[in-house]
Design brief:
The chain is an alpha+beta fold. The protein is 52% helix and 18% strand.
């Protein structure tokens, strides 16, 4: 589970116009339709093809907890791709993204400043260029650490330096020990 990647996905999922299927039968039928066959779905979910067929025919209704989690994750990953793309494009071009985080934050600065790390709870609207960077890195398969670095740079620019109006000598912002993280478009 990646904290930043899952957070970005959850923000985009808020833009869905229809809810994703909730029960195992409709979820399985959706995946079979998307992937074009029960064999591919079985390989993806690491179950037998016959089990997939049973879910499609509603002969099995209640999956094991681990299978239910994989099934829900795979459905949400593929649900409404055009809506998902529009939401990302809007955030990256005009809307920006809001980050709500409770984490340990500090910075590297010249001697004599109060650069001590401390737990802060921030809700900051980030400009579109940082939303674009976050989404591009996520699409490229960046690690959670890389997404965390991008968010740290964005917080440095927007929160600590206020767009260049203060703290111009900051070198680096440390954004660690994330306790809570939520994104919103």
């Amino acid at each position: 589970m990646t904290l930043f990647g899952d957070g970005l996905d959850a923000a985009v999922q808020k833009a869905f116009t229809r809810p994703a299927p909730k029960n195992a039968g409709p979820q399985m039928r959706y995946l079979v339709k998307q992937l074009g066959g029960t064999k591919l779905v079985a390989q993806m979910l690491r179950i037998s093809q016959r089990t997939v067929e049973r879910y499609v025919k509603d002969q099995i209704k209640k999956p094991r907890p681990d299978l239910a989690a994989r099934l829900e994750r795979e459905v949400k990953k593929r649900w409404q791709p055009q809506i998902r793309a529009k939401a990302r494009k809007r955030a990256a071009s005009t809307g920006g993204i809001v980050i709500d985080a409770r984490a340990r934050m500090g910075y590297t600065a010249p001697i004599g400043s109060t650069d001590q790390d401390r737990i802060r709870h921030l809700t900051v609207a980030l400009p579109p260029q940082y939303a674009a960077q976050l989404f591009e890195a996520q699409e490229a398969g960046a690690s959670d650490a890389r997404l965390q670095d991008i968010a740290g740079e964005a917080l440095k620019e927007v929160y600590f330096q206020d767009g260049g109006r203060r703290a111009g000598s900051l070198e680096e912002v440390r954004f660690t020990d994330v306790e809570h993280l939520e994104f919103d478009l």
